[in-house]
Amino acid sequence: MTERDFTDYIERIGDRSALYQAVAAHTGARRVLYPGSYLDLAPSYIWPDVTYLDADTRASKAFQGPDATHLATRHKHYPEHPRITYVPGDYTRTLTDLSAAEWDLVISLYAGPVCEPATRCLRPEGWLLANNSHADAGLAHLDPRYRLAAVLHHRSGRYRLTTDDLDRYLQPKRPPHPTREQLHTTGRGTAYTHPATAYTHPATAYLFRLRPHTHER
Predict the structure, then answer these.
(1) Alpha-carbon dihedral sign for residues 39, 67, 10, 27
(2) Residue ranges in the chain assigned as alpha helix (H)
(3) 23: number of CA atoms within 13 Å, CB side?
(4) Of 23, 61, 102, 210, which sits 20 to 30 A from 150 (CA to CA)?
C-alpha cells in the first residue's frame, strides 16, 4: 500500500478536509478517534493526533507503514509532526480495549452504530461527529448521554456549521421517531425534515456533545 492508495480513496469518497476543518474550528479538539476509517487519512491533515480503527487488512497495511505519516506531513494544517495511531480489528470490540475518556472527538461516518460504544472513549463534554448513515445520528439523538450541539450543511464544496434552531432538526418525516431497538434492527437512518434556509438540503452531518458527568458513577 502506498500514498497513492490514500489519495485515490480520498478522491473517490470526496475530500472531507473542509468538513473536518469546520468541526475543528468549532470544537477546538486535538485528539481524535476514527472508528471504521478505512483509508480516510484526511483527519490527519486537520488534527495532529488521530487514532484510526478498522478491520480491513488493506487499512492495516496502509496505516502501519510510513506513507500515512509522509502524506499527512505534506498536507497538515498544524505545526506539530502528525501522530497517527492505528488499531486493527472490529471497532465494536476494539473500542472497549482503549483507554477511557482520552479523546476530544469521535468521527462516525458511514461506519455503523459508533455513538454508543464511543461514549467511554470521549473526555467529559467531548464531541461526536456523526451522519445518518446506519442510523448513528438517530441513535445519538435518542441517547440521553449526548446533546445535539451543531449541524453541518454542504453546498458548492463548502460546509456551513450552524447552532441555530437545533430543535428543528432530527424530526422524522413520518413520526414517531423510530426507537433505539428499531434503528439497530434495520441499520438504516430515518428520513428527517429540515429547516428552510439558504442551505435547503438536509444536514450532511451532526455534531453532538457528551453531557457532563457521563463518566461519573
Answers:
(1) positive
(2) 3-13, 17-27, 43-46, 57-63, 67-75, 91-94, 115-118, 136-142, 180-186
(3) 34
(4) 102
Cell matching residue 104: 476530544
Phi, psi of 43, rounded to the nearest 5 degrees: -55, -30
First to last CA, the chain: 45
DSSP letter for 215, please: T
Model confidence pLDDT, tens digit, residues 38-89 = 999 999 999 999 999 999 999 999 998 899 999 999 999 999 999 999 999 9
C-alpha span between 108 and 111 (Å, rounded): 6
Domain boundaries, the chain: 3-210
Can you read off the three cell numbers belonging to residue 215?
A: 463518566
Task: Please state which CATH number belongs to domain 3-210.
Answer: 3.40.50.150
What's the pTM?
Answer: 0.94
> How many angstroms separate the CA atoms of 120 and 99, rounded?
8
User: Strand 31-35's sheet: what is its strand order?
Assistant: 83-88, 49-54, 31-35, 103-108, 122-130, 205-210, 146-155, 158-162
